[in-house]
Amino acid sequence: KVILNEPPKLKDMLLGMKQELAYCEDTINAISDPAAKDREAVVANAKAQVRKLLRDKGVQEKVAKNELLVVAGFYDIGTGVVDFMEVPMEIGDNE
Length: 95
Description:
51% of the residues lie in helices and 11% in strands. A two-stranded antiparallel sheet has the order 1-2. By secondary structure, it is mainly α. The radius of gyration is 15 Å and the shape is globular.
């Protein structure tokens, strides 16, 4: 409901992200610690964006030719650490 009150472009972006993350909503909602919940949502979003990029034919061609590597990462602003993660291509694979 809060998203619907945002400016149109932000609202569209947030609704798109929410749709991409629907598969893990139960997992995120089960986390009680707010910081852990935020981190899990950010990690899930990073993985979803990699999957989204890899659905593009142009990106697929570059990856197949080893001209491009697409990875998911999470930058922790509090520590300065970047975590890189593997992204299963199918939702639910080692998610």
